[in-house]
Amino acid sequence: MELYDVMRTTFAAREFTGESLPDNVLDRILDNARFAPSGGNRQAGHIIVVEDRQTRQRLADATQPGARRYFAQIMAGESPWNPVTRTQVTSETIAATTVPESVSTPLLTASVVLVVCVDLRLVAATDQDLDRVGVIAGASIYPLVWNILLAARGEGYGGTLTTMAVAQEPKVRTLLGIPDTYAVAAVLPIGKPVKQLSKLRRNTVGEFVTRERFDGDPYIPGSHS
């Protein structure tokens, strides 16, 4: 596939055929994804390839607490896990919320699950002293995550970036032997999608790009000289 076609059609694949992912294909995906940029080129990522069924079930179990809060907040009309507006949903309501099977099923039906970690000793978190949730450290790992998903799409496979298990990071660390100096950044189920989407819905450029300032004129493609 052409680069722009891959970029415009890489969707969140959650339903898989059960077809295996050949080792040579996974080799190509990882070998090409590794060229993603990272802060200072420190290459702080570490990927764990998980195939064991029992381990994947425990990863799926780890998604449940975070997912319960996610869906409880949606039902309450909130933006789930929002770091700006504190949730008004009670812990009792969260505990009683049912999580759809579709949340954990991809971890069990995918050909392989990749757990992507980042070495916090190697990131330059320039926003660590600001009075807000940190995001800059992600620049050292999420380009690698996205490269994996782009490469999977280019090979005719697919996956989705999941983070619900991160809410239970201590349990994930224990399960997979991850050192305390590493953070879990993403859990990626990868497999052959039941169907391949070719058209995605996204905001237009003019809806989220402005000129000169945040409150500047919308950037409309083709309108500038």
Automatic annotation (TrEMBL):
<protein>
    <submittedName>
        <fullName>Nitroreductase</fullName>
    </submittedName>
</protein>
<dbReference type="Pfam" id="PF00881">
    <property type="entry name" value="Nitroreductase"/>
</dbReference>
<feature type="domain" description="Nitroreductase">
    <location>
        <begin position="13"/>
        <end position="192"/>
    </location>
</feature>
<dbReference type="InterPro" id="IPR029479">
    <property type="entry name" value="Nitroreductase"/>
</dbReference>
<keyword id="KW-0560">Oxidoreductase</keyword>
<comment type="similarity">
    <text>Belongs to the nitroreductase family.</text>
</comment>
<dbReference type="InterPro" id="IPR000415">
    <property type="entry name" value="Nitroreductase-like"/>
</dbReference>
